[in-house]
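Minutes, project huddle
Topic: does the predicted pose make sense with zinc ion bound?
PN asked that the exact inputs be recorded in the minutes so nobody has to dig through chat later. Recorded below.
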Amino acid sequence: MGRHCCVRAEVYGALLFGYAFRPDEVRVVTENGALAARLKLLFGRLFGFDFDQRAGRPDVGKHTLVLSDRGKLAALFETFGYGGSPDVALHLNNAVLENDCCAAAFLRGAFLTGGSVTDPEKKYHLELGTPRAHVGRETITLLREMDFAPSLTARAGHTVLYLKASEQIEDFLTTVGASQAALALMETTVEKDLRNRINRKVNCETANLSKTVEAAMRQTEAIRRLRESPLWETLPAPLRETADMRLAHPEEPLAELCALFDPPLGRSGLNHRLRRLRELAEDR
Ligand SMILES: [Zn+2]
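Predicted holo structure (tokens), as shared on screen:
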């Protein structure tokens, strides 16, 4: 389920792309039972409380999650950094995406409540819709920073961001976590053909994993040699920290290893340090 910061970012994305997100009510409506279950789970983990129990019969075929308890709402808005401001939740509060790891979690949440993927006659289309215009534009900026090229349109009072290129759609889905579990969540919206393509991509990534493990083994070997040499004592602290981290987590993929640093390291930063360590071990 991920780090605490990412759980918070995912819930935030789900609410900003959900139905109501106001000081007096938070409401998410979905036809997808798995989505409702995931959101309840994340909610419990983040806040330690559940959505309100609703009196009366639920709408047929729909899951409605409601929060109107004032104490719970206050705790929720506090968590997302809105100190009682009247225009709460109209903007994306970037402070909630505090670490590099959080952007993908935020988009996953947004996709859970506001997203859909279709393949009408092979014209690929993935979209995210939100009733909050500013949030839509701010999410466009976030996506561009992540090398996506989204377009923007408006439909039925919603701001809709969409991706057309199939490579971009696949990248988006793998970025937000197109594991088998995520794919099951998307079952109602992802067309079969596209799902197969993503499955192949996920399988391919599994194959890449063994290569990753081999690379990690070469790294740990080099680091061990380095530690036994006199050079070790002269290394700058960031390199020694990186070496220790790699030895403590020898099989962790790079992205996960980045997240273990405090504060988390960027991918290229970590790559650079590991490369430097290998070079040092070689010309020792
Ligand atoms: Zn995070």
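Observations noted during the meeting:
- The CA atoms of residues 108 and 176 lie 5 Å apart.
- Residues 192-228 form the longest helix (37 residues).
No decisions taken; revisit at the next huddle.
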